[in-house]
Each structure stands twice: as C-alpha cells, then as structure tokens.
Amino acid sequence: MQRADETLSRAKDGDQTAFADLVREHQAMVFSLAHNFSRDRGTAEDLAQEVFIHLYQNLKSIESPAHLKYWLRRVTSHRCIDHARKQKMKTVSVDDTPEPAAPATFQDSLMTEALRRIVATLPEKPRLVVTLRYQEDLDPTEIAELLEMPLNTVKSHLRRSLTILREKVTRSLGEINV
Amino acid sequence: MNRFDEELKLALRREEPSPDFTDRVMARIAELQRQEKSREKTDWLRRLMQFFQPPQMKWAMAGAVAVVLLIAAFGVHRSRENERRRLAEIAEGERAKEQVMLAMRIASAKLNVAQKKVYETASHEGESK
Question: Which domain holds residue B42?
Fold first, then answer.
C-alpha cells in the first residue's frame, strides 16, 4: 500500500516511469471493463487509452490509490456508456456474434463464451452493472455509488439481468446444470 | 455464491490488453506534451493577435483611428495656412513692386522737368551773352 502511495505521489510529481507503472497496474481492470462492455478488443483498447490519458491530465485531483481505483472504474463506466450512445451500438443478437475458437475444456468454454455473448446483448446500464458486479466483485451499494444510481435500481438491474442470462444460456446450451 | 455466479465471474474475469498497451499510452502522452509545448511557443503570438481582435481592441482601435484623423486634419490645416501665407506674401511683394515702380515713374518725371528747366536756363544765358 505504501508502495502504491509512493508510485502515485511520484506520478503526480511528473515522473513518467511512475505513471507507466500506474497504467500497468490498472490496465487489466480498465481494459476488461471496456472489453466486457463492448466485446471488441480494438474499441476496448481505444477506450482504455482515453481513460489513461484523461487520468494523466487529472492526476493532481487523485488523492489516494483507493481513490484512483474508484476514479478509473467511474470514468471507464461513463466512457463506455458515452461511446455506446455515440456509436448507437446495436445490441448484438446471440446468433449474430461469431462463434469462439475451439476451446480447451469444451463445455466450460462454451458456457463462458455464451455468457459473454449474452451479457453483450443486455442494455447499456444493466450490462455495466453486471460487469462491475462480476468482473470487479463490487457489491450493489458500491455499484450504485459509482454509477450514481439508486440502490434499488442496481438491485433490480442485477435481478432482471440474471434472469435473462439464465434463460438465454439455458436456451443456447440446453440444460447443463445452470 | 452459486455455480451460475461462478460461471459469470469466469466469463467476465479481467484480461490483459495487448502487450504494447502501456507503451502506446505513454507515446500518446509524449505526443500530447509535444503539442502542448509547441502551443505554448505560439501562445504569445496568439495573445498578440487576440489583442487586435474585438471586443478587447474595440476602444483601442477607435482611439487610434481618432488620433490618425486628428493628425490628418491638423496636417491639412497647416498646409492650407502655409499656402494662404505664401499667397499673401506674393501679393504684398507685388504691391511693393508697384509702389516702387510708381515712385520711380514720379522721380523720372520730376527729373525730366528739372532737366528741361536746366536746358532752358542754359540756353537763355547763352543768348544774353
């Protein structure tokens, strides 16, 4: 924790190497949020880059490593929604998305891929709520604070999304112990 | 947490971006810094140009135009005054010349009369001798 504090402090003083360390430390989180939201690696990398450049320009306002994590999650979430609105992203139907490459453990990977594709068909906000819940392991209260959304709305998005996901996965893969 | 939750966690787990991701971010930041530096260099020129743009320059421009108009009006007035003085001097000279000519004509006439009288006096003296 002290090391993270030092890295942040050095980055704030203009140390480029320290800033690169911050990028390396958080790039998986930022990129994955964007990737799980958009299901497109190129778009996700572009969004993640923009988030880190925005961070560089606003580094002085970051107070602590925990604040940095919160800030990155928040900015990435908003960027994802903005991007989706700008692009007027069509929700991808399960049938339209490409089939995954041949998996190693066939049944698990099929399930994983099916879930990813079905999550991508959810509307923007429920998709983001599900991503933050299962990728970042945030509880509904934290998600509500991050997305400035009422707690009940978050819970309802989660409940409804999980029902939809269960139904679609069952339909897509058949009854396989879901 | 049930099996479905576990499956979702697995499906949405964190993944790393391309290996050169950090380098690309840092390259973009370096590029932004270069652009900022070059913007700072041309900033003084931009500020100068801005000074000459409305609305900041409105009153300064109006003042400058008024000063130029005043100088031009003063110049025209001076030039006309000089011309008037020159013409007056010429007229004065002409008048003086005419007076001199008149005086010379009067003097000449007087001399003629005197000369005539001298000749007449001389011829009378010769006859009486």
Answer: 14-51
Q: For chain B, how many structural domains are there in total?
A: 2
CA distances from A41 to A129, A147, B56, B101 (A): 20, 23, 49, 113
pLDDT in tens, A14-51: 999 999 999 999 999 999 999 999 989 999 999 999 99
Of A24, A119, A135, the CB nearest to B13: A135
- Per-residue pLDDT tens over the stretch A46-75: 999 999 999 999 999 999 999 999 999 999
Nearest CB to A32: which of B7, B14, B29?
B14
Looking at the complex, does the CB of residue B33 fall below 8 Å from at least one CB of chain A? no
Query: Is B18 a member of any domain?
Result: yes
Give me the helices (H) in chain A, please.
2-12, 16-38, 41-57, 65-87, 106-120, 124-134, 140-146, 151-173
Pairwise CA distance, residues B1 & B120, whole Å: 163
